[in-house]
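Sequence in, structure out. Go.
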Amino acid sequence: MSALLERLDAKAPKKILSLDGGGIRGALTLGYLKKIEEILKAKYPENQNFRMSDYFDLIGGTSTGAIIASLLALGKTVDEITVLYMDLGNKIFGEKRNWWNPLETYQWLKANYDYKGMTEGLKFALGADTTVGSDKIKTGLCIVAKRADTNSIWPMINHPRGKYYDSTHSKNKDFLLWKVVRASTAAPTYFAPQLMDVTDSQDAAFIDGGLSMANNPALTLLMVATLKGFAFRWPMGADNILLVSIGTGYPEFKKQVGEIDEATMLGWAASIPDMLMQDASWQNRILLQWLSQSPTAEVMDSEIGDMEEDMLSGTPLISYLRYNFAITKNNLNALGLAREFTDPDVTSIADMARARNKELLYEIGYRASSVIKPEHFGNF
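Output:
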């Protein structure tokens, strides 16, 4: 039995880490992860070479979260990942395509950014030959992508007993990790789709997993970990499963009534994807708070509040932690950074493609991570 399979099968409480999509705002996620790593290092002082992959039994992500999840699962420290991510951010969101170049015009009509920089960056960071089934991956890994030609969510996992891990129909274990992550990050209008051979006789076209209910993949990861159709089959229970979900920051969605009334078809086309992703995340978080009694429960709206007295089964089915940051002027100015933030700053920081904000986003995440407490991880 492989070391990974032995770990996944062990009768012990399981810890799941879920990382949202959000473009370059993944740098904010890294700030939160740095704090969690510090807390867990202090929890296990005997492990001088502690890695997050030592603690979490399943790490998964969508889009930019898939990049970070893969690097964590490969056993890298948050500091090592931060260096790679900052470099990768420049490669991914460097210069937009040159519309005036006649040789590039067709590609420009397909996507704003050239995927070559991302491809080379992912090969460097993850290893050009690293596969989903590689023993370099230290723990359970789940990359969430959207298969555009069948309109289905694909959680691609490295569990050796997975239905398509090593079957006659498909051998997911042989998928190149960089290509799977690239599939999860192929956001339409930003990057061209990722084509993959999923069987000997079938090609598939993948786009960003964020264009689904799983831009926040926490609920998807819980299903992967517990449903009988997947290979993990971990038992539910507040003492059995800890699910830690980390966002990339989010702007407040507010418009004047006149703006809505005057909106054009193009305006709606640009707004609808973000509206649907925010709705999906909201629904995701409601369900997870309904399954738990979380110390990080947030007020979901003015009617249901933080659902403190609502539990689906009358008793918690999971332990659940959610950390995210509302990108508002007041919240930014409350962090104690050596500057005054304005409304244009908020717009800039919320931009998922503005690579020049990456260091600031990391600092925002780390400052905001003061809400993460060692006692949140006490029972695990």
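Check: The longest strand covers residues 140-147. Residues 265-290 form the longest helix (26 residues).
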